[in-house]
């Protein structure tokens, strides 16, 4: 054993016996120019079509029935048929030197974390797959392990499988040492999937692709949140920047929320479902049946907070009510919408309002505690995370979408509308706290 490898293992042992109750993880927008994941040939319009399709695909696959019936190719994307997350992050694991540290997409609706491993057949395009033989701390997970749910037998050990539209992956579960950020310390015995049978996958980039798999932040038995429950106690928070920059997810004792914050109930087991009661524009509650936002068994309805979606997607009935209220508001200032065919988004204007105060106020009204305190909590959006000038040079568009071909939903609260808010999740108490904050001023 080389001296370098020996020193590396000693450091691992030191961190293993150091109880880490807090750590953080940087996340990066998929279209960040620093990552260069999207093709350089992408026009501005193609880029925003791609970001729009991420949100629509996540709305489709939040619906369990659509997940079975539809392929992602039914929503055209010129880049990828499995790229369905706005953020990517970097994981570092294994006892080899240097550690294997691939990029993975962040999926808040998935429980599993998995990467493509060497020996796959078929494989998707990837610069480098994980070679388990190089990590002396790697071991296969047995079927009797409590994290092996469902109990899939794969070559005598615990197996896993996951589907993303037409894409399907299968392989085996194993454990290794993980490090989320260089300064976070190491976590031993973390289970993740080795994908070795990958059908109809394409993360884009051809042979230069650097995205190796998926990092799930759901709450199932294989989730990192569950596996590290003793350390982080089911708590995490983030504050998304509005400038396409990197943000940070904090876990455990690092989760602190300050200022004038509010707390509402959530259902983390149902993909972080929130209890939305309605939407208010300029102090007037829109006429929307609250049942459209109530969770059902197949997720055909519901309202989910989802930073992996670029933009908020509303059930068509709710979206039309919101759109009409905005049109009515701007008519007071002599402003009429531009032709829909000119833009990627449905509601755009060719000129900006005369004053910032001429934008309508938009508020999401949440039930504080279903089954208990039925009072409501307001989340007031600001102009910067409702409207954007992505599509027209001197105008702006409503940066929300509607679910096509469906009157039921589901609806999702996307990353663009979450910017400049700090959100703190407590999975164990099933509570979500939020407060306005200038996220671009935070260090990452």
Automatic annotation (TrEMBL):
BP term (GO), one: proteolysis
SUPFAM superfamilies in alphabetical order: Acid proteases
GO cellular component, one term: extracellular region
Signal peptide location: 1-22
Stretches assigned to the Peptidase A1 domain: 87-435
A family per Pfam: TAXi_N
Coiled coil: none
Transport recorded as keyword: no
InterPro entries according to UniProt: PEPTIDASE_A1, Peptidase_aspartic_dom_sf, Plant_Aspart_Prot_A1, TAXi_C, TAXi_N
Family stated for the protein in its record: Belongs to the peptidase A1 family.
PANTHER family documented for this protein: ASPARTIC PROTEINASE CDR1-LIKE, OS07G0603500 PROTEIN-RELATED
Protein name: Peptidase A1 domain-containing protein
Organism: Saponaria officinalis (Common soapwort)
């Amino acid at each position: 054993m080389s001296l370098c490898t020996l020193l590396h293992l000693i450091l691992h042992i030191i961190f293993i016996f150091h109880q880490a109750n807090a750590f953080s993880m940087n996340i990066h927008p998929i279209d960040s120019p620093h990552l260069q994941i999207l093709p350089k040939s992408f026009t501005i319009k193609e880029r925003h079509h791609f970001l729009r399709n991420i949100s629509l695909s996540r709305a489709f696959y939040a619906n369990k029935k659509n997940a079975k019936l539809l392929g992602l190719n039914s929503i055209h994307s010129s880049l990828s048929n499995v790229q369905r997350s706005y953020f990517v992050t970097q994981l570092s694991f294994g006892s080899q030197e240097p550690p294997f540290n691939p990029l993975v997409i962040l999926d808040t609706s998935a429980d599993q974390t998995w990467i493509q491993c060497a020996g796959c057949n078929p494989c998707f395009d990837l610069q480098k797959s994980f070679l388990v033989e190089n990590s002396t701390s790697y071991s296969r997970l047995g079927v009797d392990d409590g994290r092996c749910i469902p109990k899939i037998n794969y070559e005598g050990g615990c197996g896993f499988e996951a589907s993303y539209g037409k894409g399907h992956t299968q392989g085996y579960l194993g454990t290794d040492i993980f490090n989320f950020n260089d300064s976070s310390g190491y976590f031993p015995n973390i289970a993740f999937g080795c994908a070795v049978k990958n059908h109809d996958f394409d993360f884009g980039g051809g042979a230069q692709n650097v995205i190796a798999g998926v990092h799930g932040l759901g709450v199932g038995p294989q989730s990192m949140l569950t596996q590290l429950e003793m350390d982080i106690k089911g708590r995490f928070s983030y504050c998304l920047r509005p400038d396409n920059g990197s943000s940070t997810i904090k876990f455990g004792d690092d989760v602190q929320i300050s200022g004038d914050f509010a707390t509402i109930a959530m259902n983390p087991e149902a993909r972080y479902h929130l209890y939305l009661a309605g939407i208010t524009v300029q102090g007037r509650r829109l006429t929307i049946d609250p049942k459209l936002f109530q969770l059902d068994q197949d997720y055909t309805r519901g309202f989910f907070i989802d930073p992996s979606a670029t933009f908020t997607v509303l059930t068509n009935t709710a979206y039309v009510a919101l759109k009409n209220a905005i049109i009515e508001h701007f008519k007071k200032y002599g402003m009429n919408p531009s032709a829909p065919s000119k833009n990627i988004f449905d509601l755009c204007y060719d000129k900006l309002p005369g004053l910032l105060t001429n934008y309508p106020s938009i508020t999401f009204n949440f039930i504080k505690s279903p089954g208990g305190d039925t009072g409501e909590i307001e989340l007031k959006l600001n102009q910067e995370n409702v409207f954007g000038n992505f599509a027209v040079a001197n105008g702006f568009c409503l940066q929300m979408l509607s679910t096509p071909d469906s009157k039921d939903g589901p609806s999702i609260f996307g990353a663009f509308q979450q910017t400049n808010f700090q959100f703190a999740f407590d999975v164990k108490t099933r509570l979500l706290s939020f407060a306005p904050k200038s996220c671009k001023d935070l260090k990452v």
